[in-house]
Amino acid sequence: MRFKRYGAGIAKGMALTLKHLWRRPITVEYPEERLIPSKRFRGYELVWYPERCTACATCAKACPQGNIEIVTSRGEGDMYKVEKFEVDTGRCMFDGLCVESCPFNALAMGQSYERSSYCRGQVVLSKEELTISEERQPSGYARPEIEALQPEQTLLIYRTGGVR
Ligand code: SF4
Asked: Which residues, at least 6 apart from 17, have a Cβ–Cβ distance to it below 8 Å?
């Protein structure tokens, strides 16, 4: 009676343990080892397109934290020139409201998740640091035209040197 009550559970538990005993580990020793997220991952970074930005400051007004600071000067004709476009990512919640509110698709959420820093000043990003580049690429979040070009989601994470 006692074995029936507890023995079956223990046997099931041990079977599960044995099943996973020889499996390849699913964790890595970060930061020495790193995983590469799926291309469809919506990361914790902002990507800025300087040529699209009109300095309208809609994103800055949409931010509930007041994290975006924009300084402009008079440009050619009716246009404004962006002198400063700074985001305090240390206070950022990455809610994406700035991205969703931009009427010119000049902001996007990126694909990176690494934001740790030893210095507080390094998490306040300038327009040069926010600008789209080879390393700083947009995700498909709130950008269906980018999402349409991304591979279909099958695995969440890829390991360096091959698909896990
Ligand atoms: S990023 Fe978009 S919302 Fe923000 S100032 Fe530029 S154009 Fe306006």
From this structure: none
Distance in angstroms (rounded) separating the CA atoms of residues 129 and 85: 10
The two tokens of residue 47 are 């990507």
Domain ranges of the chain: 2-159
Strand partners for 81: 73
Look at residues 124, 126, 150, 125 and name the one whose alpha carbon lies nearest to residue 137: 150
The whole-number pLDDT of residue 1 equals 56
2-159 is a CATH 3.40.190.170 domain: no
* Rg, C-alpha atoms of the chain: 23
Which residue has the CA at smallest separation from atom 7 of ligand 1?
A: 53
For a substitution probing ligand 1, which of 81, 100, 104 has the most ligand atoms within 8 Å of its CB?
104
Mean pLDDT for 85-93 is 95
Is the pTM value of this prediction over 0.90? no
Question: Cβ(104) to ligand 1 under 6 A?
Answer: yes
